[in-house]
Queue: 3 jobs
Job 1
Amino acid sequence: MRNQFEADLKTLQEMIIELAEKTKKAVIKSMSAFRTENIELALEVIDEDERINKLEKEVNELILVIITRQQPVAVDLRRNLTAIKIAHDLERVADYAVNIAKSTIRIRSRQENLPLENIEKMHELGLDMLTKASEAYRTEDLQAAKEIGEIDDIVDELYGTTVRTLMSSIANSPEHVSNIMQMAFICRYLERIADYATNIAENIYYLVKGKHYLLNQ
């Protein structure tokens, strides 16, 4: 029974890591669509989201089987509870990738003098956080989890600065308010992606330590 339990936990970990990779690819693809104004690529992100939803469902079904069959306690139970939360957080990140794709489709034309460099930086930092989160989950590395919380502070600062710049540009380009608002939404989606990566890091702390820690406060 224990051998089966260990095999199930290994499968669960592999599924979570696969979910993390698919989610990260969705974010990369959505931002590539935004960067290149590629509507077809944006539509691919939207269409492929169902695969991520399906994988999250499969993760939850496996966890239910493990808990029902093995009735785990202590760290083994935390491992399963953490997996549920991380799978949910990853699925939400994928949803924000879809939102970025939808905003990309709604943007009609790109204006000059908008803070695209900041948006790209938020994207790069968010990807770094997701990569660290996946690795920290695989290795139960608390140092990597801690670094995610520190990066989130940088993303928050970039978000505030970038949105203020976007909002102030409306006065000079009122005819482009719709497009500017969509870019502000994209900033918000990237900020939320970073928040969910931080949630994953906090859940890794819970898995290892058995206590809840807030890394971005």
Note: The radius of gyration is 19 Å.
Job 2
Amino acid sequence: MTDLGGPGDHRVRGPGDGPEAVASQIADAVESLTALWSVAAQEASLRLSLHQLRALRTVQATPGLNLTALAEGLDIGLPTASRLCDRLAAAGLLERSPHPDTRREVQLWLTTHGRHVLGEVAGRRAQALAAALAAMEPAERAALRRGLRGFLTARDKVVPGVDGIE
């Protein structure tokens, strides 16, 4: 179990509390959160892979984007993105339509069913996270909240424009 320090723990920190050590602890916590989210997503009525969920979330964030933009956003090849969209379209989650100005280009849109599935997955993930947070002491939740705010502020100073999608 990762020890991130408890509430009110204001002791002088040792070398294990430097940025590299804390980064390693946070990486462990993120892996745990990712696993929690993955399990919650798999419990939804329609089981989707993480790649499929990322694709749907990307289309949700940028309705009408083209296949090339999706492939770039997911950091996958164009043929892989095309097959991924084929599967999502076959499942009734995504639809393709010709671009009104460029006939060679196809736009991607979520279907009503796709929006419903993403909403269900988001709800299950929120429930799983809320359950984990409920098991924490109030002071621990408050410390986590303060720490996350501090992290996001520092991150924006170091790497401006990072949105943290996914």
Note: Residues 12 and 91 are 55 Å apart (CA to CA).
Job 3
Amino acid sequence: MSAKPIPGRTTAAAEGDVVVLLLGLRINHFWALHQWIPVVLAMPRMLRELARDEGRGLLGHVLLTASPRTYYVVQYWESKEKLYAYASAPDMLHHRVWAIINRKEHAGKVRGHVGLWHESYIVPEGSYESIYADMPPAGLAAATGVLPLEARGRRAADRLRHRSGPEAA
């Protein structure tokens, strides 16, 4: 991602539905390093795994911190089917990590040292819009590309009316 701002106003070049996955981690007990460090390190490994294979469907991601104990990842996916396929693929790291977590939970070895959550959103075309002013590509635009604002409309209502399929004509 370029750190150089694009002058003026732009919008994301997203077409069709947008799939957004929010993932979060909260360190509940800092002193339990052996419990939360492996979990914290798993996410960058999964992101590298996905970056090596664009066909898996991850379009882009943003890593965020909310506090010294809370971390988030915002991911943009090509489709919900590709998200589901990655999550359940036995040859991928996500599947192995969740198997370990599930085994520990069933054995009563999860002690609440680290909290995990995720939220998935399938946003239909016509239900999202974006605007960036004097910004490098960020968020959805970093994942899907950037267009001049006029390509989709100067007002949010115009951008929300955008359609990419045959009905667009």
Note: The chain is about 30% helix and 30% strand.
